[in-house]
Amino acid sequence: MTVRMRHTKGHSANRRSHHGLKSPRLSDCKNCGSAHLRHRMCDTCGKYKDKQVVDMMAKVEKKKERKKTKAKAMGKEMEKVEKTDKKKKEK
Ligand SMILES: [Zn+2]
After folding, report:
1. How many CB atoms within 10 Å of residue 29?
2. Looking at residue 3, what is its pLDDT?
3. Residues surrounding ion ligand 1 at CB below 5 Å
4. CB-count exposure of residue 54 (10 Å: 0-12, 13-18, 19+)
5. Cα(43)–Cα(24) distance, rounded to whole angstroms?
């Protein structure tokens, strides 16, 4: 297929006028007040419509556990991993 005719700048600009990104629809969590996507669970407390959907504390624990096993596999000392965790919390 060949390009049959050159489009003007205005023509291209008109077409692209609909290409802009729309900002995500956010609402405040009833439980903790942080912003979350509509019709989705809150990422900070794991609740949706006043129901506990995901146990976030268990998730955090699981993440820590995974980090430890990964550090062991990499041959690092555990102290280093804990130090970096503390630094992150301070931020
Ligand atoms: Zn929340």
Report:
1. 16
2. 79
3. 29, 31-32, 42, 44-45
4. middle
5. 15
Ligand 1 center–CA 21 separation, angstroms = 26
- Global pTM reads 0.50
67, 81 in Cβ contact below 8 A? yes
Residue 56 pLDDT: 85
Q: What is the DSSP letter of 60?
A: H
pLDDT confidence of residue 17:
96
Residue 84: both structure tokens together: 């970096």
Domain residue limits, the chain: 22-90
| Rounded Cα gap, residues 54 and 46, in angstroms | 5
Packing angle between helix 56-74 and helix 78-90, nearest 10 degrees? 140
